[in-house]
Amino acid sequence: MLTREEDIDAHALFARGWTISAIARHLGRDRKTIRAYLSGVRQAGALSGVRQAGARARSTPDLFEPFAAYCAARLTEAPHLWATTLYDELLELGYGSSYPTLTRQLRERGLRPPCEPCRPAKDRAVAVIEHPPGDETQWDWLDLPDPPAHWGWGKTAHLLVGALSHSGRWRGVLCASTDQPHLIDGLDRITRALGGCTHAWRFDRMATVINPESGRVQASFAAVAKHYGVAVRACPPRRGNRKGVVEKANHVAAQRFWRTLPDDVTPEQAQQRLDAWCATRGDTRLRATTDGKATVAALAHDEPLRPPPAAPFPATLTVSRVASAQALVSFRGNRYSVAPELAGATVTVSHRLGTSHLDIATESATVIARHTLAPEGAGAMVRDHGHVTALEHAAITATTARPHRGKQRIPPGPHARAAAQALRGQQPSGTTTGGEVVIDLARYAQAAAARRTLPPAGPALQQ
């Protein structure tokens, strides 16, 4: 069974034109095994004891698994503990395998942590590492503080930098996030800008590529490496000098590009400025060679790079946006329409790399619009006919009320007059505090009775 690294190396060598027999001899594996992995019949699994989809399960139980936790805890407490001493302790706990099996399991599982005080990262001898032409591309993220506020990227922008180790040619892509879809998009764009794929890609221990705990390639990134036909090389922990070419490119990008970037540029304009600087300044630098001095562009032109795949790896790029008052959503220098009811609402823009359209969905993941993707930074406004009609209808409906005239006569109404009398301390006649009319029928009855009573007779009438 091939490890994930061997599987990636096999696909990379096969993409370079190696035969299955040559790959089998190089990796020390059987030809039928190599053929099965290249054809997709078998796939590389994870660590022992973990089975992935399509990976062959173990035929025998893992005898070392019960002792792995003890070894990890013991070596964490004492990183310099001899393996022979650990072997003696395991024998007392019932360990039945051999000593070579123990040392192999310690290496494969990475159970012995590095002792950083014993190997400091600075003040050590630095060797000159040879980089053959077309062999390696180095990648790294550069965090750039305080991007322009109108970008909406928060307090930090991210620049993915890729550099050819031999010639020193580098390119960068500005990103709002460092998640895996943005990483894959940046890898594809930089690879095409550099002119093609090298034999291997070197990364530090970024979590989207390398598992920080095991140091193995992430299962989600293995498919990306096989899509581009490259091998993945991980830098050892705290060994930044191993990828010094891209580290120097990071320093140049921060000092000569980001430090002088104006505040009134858009992300697309900033990307264009970076590409122009790399082409006019970065590629004209002189490098010392065995035949004299040559420019970076000349050295990069002579590197044997493989053409990149016809389409990018199909990752889905997802970003959040707020629709404007005109029901438009901004994405990579263009604006796309949504229904007028979503003006001011937060929506999600999704774009599958390699496709010619994008989807706009609500926060509940309901897709409400699909548009044809416009060229990046073109400043285009892509609007659906239905959205335009609905927006015009909403705008007309909102302005049908008759405006007030400046000289219209509007005297105080009943409510205003009642409030004024209350302020003057007068109670309105025939009303209560609530304004209701009160009719006292007892007064009407008393008046009627008085009228029916005859007046007393005079002296003449009494006779």
Task: Give structural notes.
The protein is of the alpha+beta class and 463 residues long. It is built from 15 helices and 14 strands. The chain has helices at residues 4-15, 20-27, 31-39, 65-77, 83-92, 99-109, 180-194, 219-228, 244-258, 267-280, 296-301, 385-397, 414-423, 441-452, 459-462; strands at residues 136-145, 156-164, 170-175, 200-203, 231-234, 286-289, 292-295, 316-322, 328-331, 334-337, 346-352, 357-361, 367-372, 381-382. The chain has a five-stranded mixed sheet, sandwiched between helices. A four-stranded antiparallel sheet has the order 8-11-12-13. It has a three-stranded mixed sheet with strand order 9-10-14, with no helix packed on it. The longest helix has 15 residues, at 180-194.
List the helices and strands and how they pair.
Elements: H1 4-15, H2 20-27, H3 31-39, H4 65-77, H5 83-92, H6 99-109, E1 136-145, E2 156-164, E3 170-175, H7 180-194, E4 200-203, H8 219-228, E5 231-234, H9 244-258, H10 267-280, E6 286-289, E7 292-295, H11 296-301, E8 316-322, E9 328-331, E10 334-337, E11 346-352, E12 357-361, E13 367-372, E14 381-382, H12 385-397, H13 414-423, H14 441-452, H15 459-462
Parallel strand pairs: 1-4, 4-5, 10-14
Antiparallel strand pairs: 1-2, 2-3, 6-7, 8-11, 9-10, 11-12, 12-13
Helix pairs in contact: 1-2, 1-8, 2-3
